[in-house]
Amino acid sequence: MLSKSKVKYIRSLNIKKFRNQYNAFVAEGNKLVADMLPFFKCELLIAKPSWMATQGDLNPEELIVAEEDDIQKASFLKTPQDVLAVFKRPAVNIEEADASHQFILALDGIQDPGNLGTIVRLADWYGIEHIVCSIDTVDVFSPKAIQATMGALARVKVHYVPLEEYLKKQEPPLYGTFLNGENIYHKTLTPYGVVVMGNEGNGIRPQIEKLITEKLFIPNYPLDRKTSESLNVAIATAITCAEFRRRML
Fold it and tell me: In the chain, at which residue ranges do the beta strands (DSSP E only) sit?
């Protein structure tokens, strides 16, 4: 039986203040929870018997066998699935995000949790182990962002730091995407360094732009055709990462 106090605790994790206070986050869904269980410490697992019967050994701190009505009370989804879990947030070390020998994504003020979650998933696909975010970037541990990562957060470390200070410590190249940059398909690209992606509406902030050493532009086709003003940041990140990785094949 899922108590009212447990429901209140889980629902509180929709708010960043309480995620920080309890150092915890919520994941929902049959595949998402199953994918994350081997990688994160599970504080609480609430699941239907049918889902548990399909799993191997489960080692949460607390396990509650529940039915649909119980899961519905705690869920953040319109259509809850068979399992909901509360995980402890992993520890990360910004010193590991060293751009001198690896490819790092940096996010400057991304606000949409769906965009952030998709970018984490993209990073996982392209073997990018670290994403460095400005302090005001949306929290990757929000329920919507967690759902959008599709479990990729198990392999990608997300750091929140004063972005300007972090970039000042990195050696060139520091890449960024701009409408006035050089064509990414004609530009020499390195297999290491930082690529900065900007806010959905405002792009990269001026103080961050001053630190960029290589400005990139994703061209539309054909170049003289009138088109949309810009690309969605997650789509632009996908195109950019794909081109960097293509050069390494």
Answer: 24-28, 42-47, 63-65, 83-88, 103-108, 130-133, 157-160, 174-183, 193-198, 214-217
User: Cα separation of 159 and 147, whole Å?
Assistant: 18
Whole-model pTM above 0.90? yes
Domain count, the chain: 2
Q: Which residue has the tokens 């520890």?
A: 91
Q: And the tokens for 114? A: 């769906």
* Residue type present at position 214: E
Total residue length of the chain: 249
Dihedral sign, Cα of residue 179, residue 184, residue 187, residue 189: positive
The β-bridge relationship of strands 157-160 and 63-65 is: unpaired
Indicate whether 207 and 232 sit together in one domain: yes
Cα separation values, 113 from 138, 145, 233, Å: 6, 4, 12
Q: Which of 72, 88, 104 is the last residue of a domain?
A: 88
Q: What is the pLDDT of residues 146-197, one digit of tens each?
A: 999 999 999 999 999 999 999 999 999 999 999 999 999 999 999 999 999 9
Q: What is the pLDDT of residues 202-221, one digit of tens each?
A: 999 999 999 999 999 999 98
Bridge partners of 107? 133, 197
The answer on 213 and 145 residing in a single domain is yes
